[in-house]
Structures are given as structure tokens and as C-alpha cells.
Amino acid sequence: MLPANAVQAAQHMLLPYLLQASVVVDATAGNGKDTLFLAKNTLSQAAVWAFDIQPSAIENTSRILAAAGLAEKVRLIQASHDTLGSTLNQPIDAVMFNLGYLPGSDRHIATQPNTTLAAVEQAAHLLTIGGLMTIVVYPGHASGILENQVLQQFLSTLPQQNFSVACWSMQNQINNPPLLYAVEKRRELRR
Ligand SMILES: C[S@@+](CC[C@H](N)C(=O)[O-])C[C@H]1O[C@@H](n2cnc3c(N)ncnc32)[C@H](O)[C@@H]1O
């Protein structure tokens, strides 16, 4: 069966990568559903890192991890994901971005093109060979349109010798449905 939406498609694509991952990242923890997905589907010795700027997101994520008995496995970081490189500074096997705003919360606290791009660049640099980054972007709202433009410009110019980049979306949904970008590292970029 096809995934119902871009977030489900991201989780579906990530599953085989998680089975062998040591370090994985949720760059936008929100209500913790994606962090829980990462914690549940990685080996017990894997480390999961989750970032969000909102205290309520960190609290909600902490709560659902504790309820699932997975709190120990996850480092919750209340900071912008563009600090990912300096916070982790180690290879990452898989990273998820689920952009935009937290449903049911202040829509003004949404991801922004410049910090998203910086975080995606850092994640692409830290990704292990054979590692996967997924990015779900929401062009149905104004800042999502800009965010998508910036991401598309960056991702479409990644050299194909170093990265495979794909885009998935539902083609027959109204109101600009979310897009999923999937980025797999093939070979290190020389800097
Ligand atoms: C669509 S929600 C994420 C949903 C979440 N993954 C889940 O499973 O519930 C987007 C989240 O990005 C967070 N966010 C906004 N700007 C951010 C930034 N610069 N760094 C990290 N998180 C950010 C928001 O606070 C919000 O919680």
C-alpha cells in the first residue's frame, strides 16, 4: 500500500537504514512522534538525538518517550537544529526533518529557510556513506513555499557522485500537499 502522506513515506524509507544505525537525529521533535519512531526502530545501543526550539515540544517528546520506556535512549536538545553540527560533531546514520509548525500550537513558531538550510547542509556533511536524510516540507503555507525553494535549489545542485536526491509527493491532493526529499550519501564531498 502507498504511504498516506509524506511523513509516512519518510518513515517507510528510513526503516531499513535504522536497523543498522548507531546515531540518528530528529531535527524537529515537535510532539515527539518521529522521535518515538526513531527510538523504537533502532537497536538498543543506538543513540537518538532530538532538537526543537520550543520548551513545550521538548516536554511533549519527553513525556511520550517516558511512557514508551525509551527516555534513556534519547538526548533532547532545546536548541535550533542549525546547532546540530556543533552539538553532535560526529557521523550521523539517519536524520529526519519534519518542517513547519507544531500542529495545535503557535503557527508563528515555524522552521525558517535560513536555519533549515544551514541545518540541512550540516546534516549532509555529517551523514555517513550510505546514510539517509529525509526532509518533509509544507509548501501549503507562505514560509513553507520559500523554504521549499531554498531546499530545492540546494538539493538539486548536490553532486550526483556524492548524493542521490529524490522527491516524493502525492500528485492528486489539493492545497499543495507536503513534499518529501530523501538524500542518501554515496561518497564524501571534498571540501
Ligand atoms: C511539524 S513540527 C514537527 C513534528 C514532529 N516531528 C512530530 O513528530 O510531532 C515542526 C517543529 O519544528 C520546530 N522548530 C521550528 N524551528 C526550529 C528550529 N530552528 N530548530 C529546531 N526545531 C524547530 C517547531 O517548534 C515544531 O515543533
Automatic annotation (TrEMBL):
Pfam families cross-referenced by the UniProt entry: rRNA_methylase
Key words, A-Z: Methyltransferase, Transferase
CDD domains: AdoMet_MTases
InterPro entries: MnmM_MeTrfase, SAM-dependent_MTases_sf
Keyword Cell membrane: no
GO MF, one example: methyltransferase activity
Swiss-Prot/TrEMBL GO biological process terms: methylation
Transmembrane segments: none
Full protein name: rRNA methyltransferase
Gene source species: Anaerosporomusa subterranea
